[in-house]
């Protein structure tokens, strides 16, 4: 996810702070015909700074993100499981598709691992947060256009990864798992525009669920897990800063997850993986709902 001046303008336009409420726990969206292939020999993490575990300077704890937590569990199934994190800070769905970019690199590595007689059995993708951020600045990108571009890109990303995870006979050799977005700014109104995050994050998530469901791909509905838990899961300070001149503004509005948030992301992905044995001690299991 990107940081920048758009956050300053967001706070400049802040006119009300709405109190947060509790909501139901998160759940997993698992297609009824999903059968896990298992973690294989390599777990590959793709996406943006959620996957790299990078936070804004001043908050950066130098700890790994959610993929390291998911890896620890998957290594309970295969202790020799390898790990490749190809995520890039600031990645969008468009930059991920750029020639020679992250997706091309991932597909090449999947093929290389296969040619060596091994298998990339688990691939997780966290993408779309930076796309969504681009609509939050008043006068910025037009939300409907951003969403339409993301939808087309996301579908292409999933199609190409699914094809790469099949053998020559079309047999699935790996499990592709995706996650929805969480809303770091609930109740943040922008002057003359409204609560863009509250309005558009659910629309992005509806698209993520629909596009993934059409391809039989499980979705970790982590957005629900964050609702009501923002203070413990995200670095954004509550109440929101009320001055764009605050020298600590960007740090206080850092929408990256804290370690508890990363655990929620990892736990959401575990919930849809279908893997056993049980998760490591201390993980909070989210109920799996098949729809």
Instruction: Identify the overall geometry.
Output: globular
**How much is the average pLDDT?**
84
Query: How many β-strand stretches?
Result: 7
Helix content: 25-40%
Rg estimate, integer Å: 19 Å
- CATH superfamily caption: SGNH hydrolase
Distance between the termini: 30 Å
CATH topology (level 3) name = Rossmann fold
Widest sheet: strand order? 3-2-4-5-6-1-7
- Secondary-structure element pattern, one letter each: HEEHHEHHEHHEHEHHHHE
Largest sheet: 7 strands, mixed
| Assigned CATH architecture | 3-Layer(aba) Sandwich
Give the helix/strand class: alpha/beta
Q: Please write the CATH class name.
A: Alpha Beta
Number of helices: 12
Q: Poorly predicted ranges (pLDDT <50, ≥5 residues)?
A: 1-26, 278-291
Task: Report on the architecture of this protein.
It is a single chain. It is built from twelve helices and seven strands. With 291 residues, it is an alpha/beta fold. α5 packs parallel to α7 (143-164). The two termini are 30 Å apart.
Write a concise synopsis of the structure shown.
This protein is α/β, with parallel strands linked by helices and 291 residues long. The chain has 12 helices and 7 strands.
Which keywords apply here?
7 strands, seven-stranded mixed beta sheet, 12 helices, 291 residues, globular, disordered C terminus, alpha/beta, Rossmann fold
